[in-house]
Amino acid sequence: xxxxxxxxxxxxxxxxxxxxxxxxxxxxxxxxxxxxxxxxxxxxxxxxxxxxxxxxxxxxxxxxxxxxxxxxxxxxxxxxxxxxxxxxxxxxxxxxxxxxxxxxxxxxxxxxxxxxxxxxxxxxxxxxxxxxxxxxxxxxxxxxxxxxxxxxxxxxxxxxxxxxxxxxxxxxxxxxxxxxxxxxxxxxxxxxxxxxxxxxxxxxxxxxxxxxxxxxxxxxxxxxxxxxxxxxxxxxxxxxxxxxxxxxxxxxxxxxxxxxxxxxxxxxxxxxxxxxxxxxxxxxxxxxxxxxxxxxxxxxxxxx
Length: 304
Ligand SMILES: [Zn+2]
Prior knowledge:
two-stranded antiparallel ribbon, 304 residues, binds zinc ion, seven-stranded mixed beta sheet, 36% helix, alpha/beta, 2 domains, globular
């Protein structure tokens, strides 16, 4: 006789959930459970608390360009792992997994398309590829994007979302800061607009180079933007940091950004800025047509 007997018949194997995976999304900020379709329709902004969730580089390009259409450029690059780096995993394996996961060859998508009818070159960083870190390939592709913008005389848009330089490539990754900055300098000399859009998070060598070099630097609300992380700074200076430190609103208040733009407004606003930069001749001609050829100058009456 056994000491115990089964009081109940075993439970039937769990029925397969009829709720498909990904039907619901939990907002990280307000913990609200949201219908994924509604979130996607809202450009991944929480309809309850306005938290701007992360976008992939492809989603970003689609959200900004006319009809969500663009041509992907400069594909087929790959890091040659110059340091043969390995930590808990081999760098080569991290690269392979990230490529499969994102469908990109590295942490940036280069796209050519039109924004409200204006041809633009877009570089959108991909956080899902080793934290959007900038190695040799990211540096090369963003430089190529800047060179293409220069050659075609099209505005350049860079959407940053990155943990910074890629430690697995050591000093080679840090060199990309100077390389991209030099290419942007040539764009500036040619008076081609470069708009930088900083999204959550933009940190390290990306903030310290091209992300802050836009003719206009725009950020999404509450995006973390900084060089070193807040914990590192707090430990170094041994002082608590002010509330909202390294968030877009704090940076705007301290003169580090030009404006904060909600994601829903971004495309419209970029269109306005680009028209301002790219249609000076038309605006000048329209003004000249509206104004009389010579404006009489009011002179003060001579004092008798
Ligand atoms: Zn929320």
